[in-house]
Amino acid sequence: MKIIDGLKWRYATKYFNKEKKVSKEDISILKEAVNLTASSYGLQPYKVIVISDPKIRESLKEASWGQSQITDASHLFLFCNNLNVTDVDIDNYIQLRAKINNLNPEDSKEYADMMKSNIGSLPPEILSAWTARQCYIALGTLLAASSEMEIDSCPMEGFDNNKYDEILGLKEKGLSSAVLCAIGYRDDKDSFASLKKVRKSISDVFDEI
Fold this sequence. Notes:
alpha+beta, four-stranded antiparallel beta sheet, 4 strands, 46% helix
């Protein structure tokens, strides 16, 4: 299967080719793949910021302990979780769901009320942790999709979230930076590309009951 070949091919790229850029067409495909990601209730409680601006990336590099991927990769995908999920957000989702599937939104009132009750009862820190986990599901889709397209990637948690939030004005938008992924094409000098992938055996990772 192509997905298995792609996942065997990919690795966390340490050095990107500065001159080689991912095309607009391929960025669009990756966006669509991420947008199709599974999320709890289907709410997609996050925003994904695709960053290519060199000046912004220089500022972000300082907040990423100088890691070269921030400025050398073709693009950065920054997954930002919602700090709040309101009744309005849920109502908007129900309306969109009804429109796409030609349903009566009133028929989903019980489902909407259940979501509002469950999500509304979460303390702010628990809610933020929950929405951040949704970002990681989306990140997994980006990694898989890019590997199929032979676009290199490097998922990254090594950055100062507070500084990212400040540089990008995220708190004012009700968002917080959760996880980052640099994408592009590997540089020939990246010796990590030649290393064999190290993974536990299938029997070590999986149990069957």
